[in-house]
Here is the input.
Amino acid sequence: MDVALSHAQPRNWRDTDMGERHTRWWTTIPAWSVIGLGALAVHLVLPVDASQTLAALLLTLIAGVYIGFAVNDGRLPRILVEGSVAIGFVAFAGWALLYAPILLPLGYIFHAGWDFLHHTSIFNMKMPKWYVPACVVFDVIVGLGLWAIWLIH
Here is the structure.
């Protein structure tokens, strides 16, 4: 593929046959629900402060994934937007961990919204088609699950 063409019209993994095989909702949603529940399991055995630290760290890592997709996509505006949003999530995670840890799950819920925006035509970015629904499911389950775990403790 011509480099100039790839910047004007990026090849979108969401439109390939490979992407289609891996995006069936009836496999993506249950699989990532199990992964989300598995991620929550460790929080059941950790002390609350350690759980909150881990949750903040995971939120920053999740936020950074879209930077990788943007770099792979190759368009500078995408990289700048994704980088800026990731910085916002990192700042929120750090602030929440220090001042209001009970709000950390809200970061996961907001990230699910950010994920969902990538499912629209606003973000035509080169990325695996399965990633967006998987991340939405994971973020919602982890966000709600963390609140439940921390409120019980």
Notes: Residues 14 and 129 are 4 Å apart (CA to CA).
